[in-house]
Amino acid sequence: MKTAIIGYPRIGTLRELKFATERYFDGVLSKAELQDIAALLRKTHWQTQIENDIDFIPSNDFSFYDNMLDTAVLINVVPKRYRDLRLDYLAEYFAMARGYQGVNGDVKALAMKKWFNTNYHYIVPEIEDDTEISLVGTKPFDEFSEAKDLGIVTKPVVTGAFTFLKLAKFTGNKTPDDFIINIITSYSEILKKFKDLGAEWIQFDEPALVMDLTADDIVLLNKIYSEILSAKGSAKVLLQTYFGDIRDCYQDVISLPFDGIGLDFIEGKKTLELVKQFGFPADKTLFAGVVNGKNIWRNNYSRTLRILDELRKTGGDIVLNTSCSLLLVPYTLKNESSLSEEYKKHFSFADEKLTELADLKKITASNTPAEIPEYIENIRLFKASRFCPDASVQAAVSSLSPEGFIRHPAFYEREKIQKAVFNLPLLPTTTIGSFPQTAEVKANRSNFKNGKITLKQYIEFNKEKIAECVALQEKIGLDVLVHGEFERNDMVEYFGECLDGFLFTEKAWVQSYGTRCVKPPVIWGDISRSKSMTVDYIVYAQSLTRKYMKGMLTGPVTILNWSFPREDITLKECAFQIALAIRQEVLDLEANGIKIIQIDEAALREKLPLRKSDWHSEYLDWAIPAFRLVHSGVKAQTQIHTHMCYSEFSDIIGDIGDMDADVITFEASRSGHAIINVLNRRGFKTAVGPGVYDVHSPRIPSTAEIKAALLKMLEKTPREKLWVNPDCGLKTRGNAETVPSLENLVDAAREVRRSLQP
Ligand code: GLN
Ligand code: ZN
């Protein structure tokens, strides 16, 4: 069996691409220098795969920002407002990704959305009525040729036409059908070009096929591929799916003239069943996703071999593949010097997964697999017990009663009580929590970590920053203040470090969007809180102001979703363990005089199953209770806020309401405030702060712009339920844009407030 991967991370083992791109944004690096660094990274990544004996090495999995955006640009899906800026290729590309504010104009970034059920975010292409889809770009071909010049014949990867059309936003009156001829022509040309360049296989990524598909979707799929494939000639086309099974279109897919089909045997609950039930054509190659592309745990070879035994019965060629792109896992364990071998031997990052593929290749090729040392060692690893359980945590979870999940009194009662005690102005202004993480803030943390400063010095510095931040917010005139989160590297890692049960890595970064990376902690054991985590800083911040200081916590579902979870207990059990720990912190803050507590569930929607039929049974039925458990013990007079990093929750709005928070803030600016209409229609009870400007872009919103957004929201939102805030935390921004943006926000709120006074 040969080996393949679907895609490889691109940001660099030490985040070289991130730093280079940011230096380019700052004008420190030229375009040519940035491109040189990118080429070097691509070369290194290809070579790593060669060293690990990977047979199908992807190209065009590289991106300066996002592959979806790359595909849009490739086929001329560039909205007019960006073309009108008349920028060069790369600058236009980044304008779409991040917005542009400069001599050529002022345009916001395109919307960004979660990539299926991951913490990666893609840029949403916009197809306008007069968009002329045609193959205009050269990136995939350039990168294929670049590898070829290095002597590596790669398997180019391009987002498939179906997924592209499903994820793109149609801004005018036209629908996918209106663009289908041009799409087909463009993709046929892509195939032809690759064939001419000497590609043997071309991979079209179609993760959208694992979603619930309608009859129309299936017609669209058949139409697209019967046409594209009719022009393919001798080039071999691999249809690659991932993040689930393709139960709605399996029979269509195997009937189409693909040369290879990539299926996910990890997240695809029904994949094996589909293959058994409907067979797999012996004239096609099955790219079997048996090595998990998302988790960080070692592959269980015995289990994998059992799947492969089943697949062998189909009689066709099998290629050992990852279940999805390795973009979603860190690079390598080699850079983890402080984790002990005891733990590390259970881990597998991207490079170790390459080794696993190579091991499996060796084992499957052997007549005496049981004698292969790698196999013997793997069996031993999985036989040994791994976790050290904490009986008291497990007992606390198993003794939870339904009553523990209900907050008293009920929402409307609390609303009345809170209105009276808080006495906030109409349209209260606030922020989501973090303030800019300047170089000195980061230096303080790293100096402390490296032992260059004492704990006392470290805390003193943070307190100084908190004092500055409180003073700044008072000066700007915000109503509900925050402490600024200067002690937090990351909203999940910070809590992971304070809680028991987590492990940490040094360099295990994973790209979240663009140049942003996260370093998820690893859940190793049972989780508990042995000390307070935020109380000192928050109480100190509150002591500096007469305004309300929000306590700032991360919720259990987000902590879980942004960590690498255990696989030996259920996610539900793990979420409840975390919930109980955060609950203690909430009660501790309340006992120390904090009246408003925000519990961020930034990532709540992230792990929502891709298929609707699984939403409740597999996820919401424990995720929402986990959140309720965190705050059900507080008094009526304590106001609970939550925050979410997206606004696509119209379809789970009832569940969001069931979280029973008093106030919810969320992203709304990039997606055009569409959610407001839904909230209104559904009579959403929770007070809302739909973000009035986009913090993922360095643009400064004007007062008029924010005012207009507020007036628009007020058409559909009762005035007593509306809060005014940016759409997310400010940590990735600089002070230069943050201060004027917040000043404009406060001005806008005041002006609108004045216009509302009777
Ligand atoms: N309180 C966090 C912050 O402001 C929330 C971040 C997030 O939603 N991703 O940074
Ligand atoms: Zn957010």
Topology:
Blueprint: E1 2-3, H1 16-25, H2 31-51, E2 58-59, H3 67-74, H4 80-83, H5 89-98, E3 100-102, E4 105-107, E5 112-114, E6 121-123, E7 126-127, H6 139-149, E8 155-159, H7 161-167, E9 169-170, H8 176-197, E10 201-205, H9 215-230, E11 236-240, H10 250-255, E12 260-264, H11 271-278, E13 285-291, H12 301-312, E14 317-322, H13 341-344, H14 350-365, H15 373-383, H16 391-398, H17 411-422, H18 439-449, H19 455-476, E15 480-481, H20 493-498, E16 500-503, E17 510-513, E18 516-518, E19 522-528, H21 535-543, E20 548-554, H22 556-561, H23 571-591, E21 596-600, H24 615-631, E22 639-644, H25 653-658, E23 663-666, H26 674-681, E24 687-690, H27 703-716, H28 735-756
Parallel strand pairs: 1-14, 2-8, 7-9, 8-10, 10-11, 11-12, 12-13, 13-14, 15-20, 20-21, 21-22, 22-23, 23-24
Antiparallel strand pairs: 3-4, 5-6, 16-19, 17-18
Helix pairs in contact: 1-2, 8-9, 16-23, 18-19, 23-24, 27-28
Short description:
With 758 residues, this protein is α/β, with parallel strands linked by helices.
Strand content: 5-15%
The tally of helices reads: 28
- The CATH class designation of the largest domain is Alpha Beta
Strand count, sense and barrel status of the largest sheet are: 8 strands, parallel
Using DSSP, what is the number of strands?
24
For the terminal residues, how far apart are their CA atoms?
76 Å
User: What count of structural domains?
Assistant: 3
CATH-derived architecture of the largest domain = Alpha-Beta Barrel
Bound molecules: glutamine, zinc ion
Which parts are unreliable, with pLDDT below 50 for 5 consecutive residues or more?
A: none
Major sheet: arrangement of strands? 1-14-13-12-11-10-8-2
State Rg: 26 Å
What would the principal axes of the Cα set say about the shape? globular
- CATH-defined fold name of the largest domain: TIM Barrel
Structural class: alpha/beta
